[in-house]
Amino acid sequence: MSGARFRSRSSFAISLLVPLALIGIVTLVGASGRPAFQGTVTLILCNLIVVLGLQVFVGNSGVYSFGQLGFATAGAYVAALLTLPPAFALLQTPGLPSFIADAQLGALPATLIAAAIAGLLAVAVGLPLMRTSTLAIPISTFAFLVVVYNVTANWDRVTGGSSGLVSIPTTTSVESAGLWAAVAAVLAIAFKWSASGYRLQATREDEVAARSIGIGVMRERLIAFGISGVLCGIGGALAVHQSGVLNPTTFYFGATVTTMTMLVVGGARSVLGAVVGAIAIATVNEMLRGIENGADLFGAISVGAAPGLAAIGLGLILLATMIAMPDGLSGGREAGELPWVRRLGPTASSPPSGAPAALAGRSQVEAVEKGALRAEEISIAFSGLRVLKKVDLELEPGEALGLIGPNGAGKTTLVNVLSGFQGPDSGTVTLDGVDVTGGTPTRLARDGLGRTFQASLPFPHLTALESVAVGAMGIGIGRRRAAAVAADVLDRLSLLGQAALPAGSLTPAGQRLLGVARALATHPRYLLLDEPAAGLNEVECGELAEILHGVLGDFGCGILLIEHEMSIVMELCPRIQVLDDGTTLCVGAPEEVQADPAVVEAYLGHSFQAVANA
Amino acid sequence: MGMMNFAHGEFIMLAAYALYVFAGLPFPAAVASALLTGIAIALFAERVAFRPVRSADLSTQLVTSLAVAAILQNVVTAAVDARAQSVATPASLSESTSIGGFSVPNLEFVTLGLTAIVLAGLGWLLYRTRTGLAMRAAAENFDMARLLGVRADRVIAISFAISGALAAAVGVLIVMQTGQVTPTMGLTPVLIGFVAVVIGGFGRMFGAVIGGLLLGVLSSLLGAYLPDGLAPFRDAIVFTFPVLILIFRPHGLLGGEVGRARV
Description:
Shape of chain B: globular
Mean pLDDT of chain A: 88
Helix content of chain A: 55-70%
Radius of gyration of chain B: 19 Å
Low-confidence stretches of chain B: 257-263
CATH superfamily of the largest domain in chain A: P-loop containing nucleotide triphosphate hydrolases
Number of helices of chain B: 11
CATH topology of the largest domain in chain A: Rossmann fold
Largest sheet of chain A: 6 strands, mixed
Distance between the termini of chain B: 22 Å
Oligomer: heterodimer
Order of helices and strands of chain B: HHHEHEEHHHHEHHH
Number of strands of chain A: 12
């Protein structure tokens, strides 16, 4: 079992230690400076925590949220109100319930409560927002940010209104901020490499493919949104205990742009990127602010005051990054994944060895149970065009059924109906006797239905091993066992040698096989393959046929094969169903199908039929 | 275009500032200069910032537009001032006309008329002209449109010019109503626009109109009937409302095309 790992120990250690070392250096540099400098560095570290919070959601989901600073605001106000001395509280926030006004907690409990409340708020806000589409989330989260601003600016009796709060105890030191930043970095990396983190990354790489392996997109996004809220809340709470003042614009549009710039410039996909980006941008920002205030630059160039200069500079950096380097400084990689670090290391990539038989056991046992995937009288029309007309189909575990027919016959639509991507207008789909008509792809994948697509839909930024393992994680298998399952599947498909490569770097044939492997890792009892040989050359087709034979034997699942490459269909499938114009022409053995006049006509046309008969 | 442009608010803001800078000119000339400013700045942003990221994913384009917005906003802050500047408006606009006992400010007529003209013009352009067809084709599938001979660069530039002109119209109307300009004045209108699009459903002009009307009506009703204690929270309630719609219609009232995954 120990063979299968997502990364070598050294790669793991480097990925974890480099961000921590960077945070440590910043903390030490800060602690050695004068008080004013210490304050600046403390705020930079607080910002860093917020950026890490952004990374957890934005980086792993690929969905931009402009509302995370709203959670920083929430955390900051909660922490401020909990620690404000009662006398000041009475003065500034007369509307506050007395148990909060009288409370004067220490820094740690206040921060923890602030984090918890920010996290709960994130879950509450995320519940409706995460249901919306990838495009709507940036807008609706932005609207949330405005709502938070509006409430804090006008709820005078509790938040002090637009003039804000003052005399908040300043308890955050450079050291404590550095410690929290380190905790946040570990948390962010732990989430990224957890099963939930991997599932979320899969939705970022390809949402459709992610749903096909049982991943609930909304659920995974919500989890990350909540964790992101907690981290942003901590960042806000610590920051307010550094500056001692808080008003509704502290974490508003400007801070949103700044933190987003930090994340994007560093490279949103990696925790390293968040840390590097936050430190780099903060440094540039401080320098620009120095110029803005008319300070002497390096003691040589004296510049007059120029308000707005820092913000213009950050905007230009962000713009240049998007145009020239959209993956950011880190390239979206963790420290251990950087090309030059890999070259340094003794074991650049250690492909998992001795693949265990983690998978075969379960599916073969279940294959013995009697059942079938059955479609009855499926009909569907797209704006009047009837694509399927009362089509039946039956697939048993362990059997291979070929589904052929001319282009536009409705083959892919039928597979979409079977796998839940398309609800039928009428008819039923049953899975081992249970009616699953209208079930979501996620549900059906967990119930034992795997599929591939005409396009490979790879997860380009995950390694081959991760891409397949996430299939196992999709149906709820933990990450360690998922790695073992993935290694096993890759081994059987002769892909193990490429396990450590990014999926996007495999050949087209490799990516196609990877799609099959990913589906197999979900332990399907029924596997629907939509033109797996499309785009493969003759040699690769031969290899694919061999591999599919092996799959039938090893995994015991039923295979529905859509394919135009007849050699594979004829060789693999003892039973073939021919679809034409939305109806079944015939079902039978290859010889029967080939001899059927209706099939010949569908494929070759009426005149050919006449010629053949003459 | 299937693209959300944060910088649209800054097109509005810059056009409004043109009105402020050219306040000395006769009013029609000042409005014309605002219009030209809106178009020029939109074309400039398209050429410098948006064209290089055109083939990138939507998130990249979104963040790019955020960068453009931040730059433009702060350039104005640096060049003029962060504080609001007042702009004189023609007296005739602030007078009212009495209709059947109701006193209606003249400005409302201008707003209403202009909105109707813009909507009709936009609908006509998009759905009744060759250029509009080319624009919609380029929005659906840029590369394919290009292969079919649509002069895509020009089409996209035209659509940016149009959006710049529309932004300028909005900017002028806002100045007429408030009599002042600030560097952040573009934020609220663009957010309202975004939210209207989300409510209506992406890629549907009619959806955006419905969404915008709903938001406007809601905002006015809340303004009139909200008890005093809650009145300051009007914006919060207005922007929470879309969430309620999205709970039941995650892809907007009319159901967007973009939100649905194609398999």
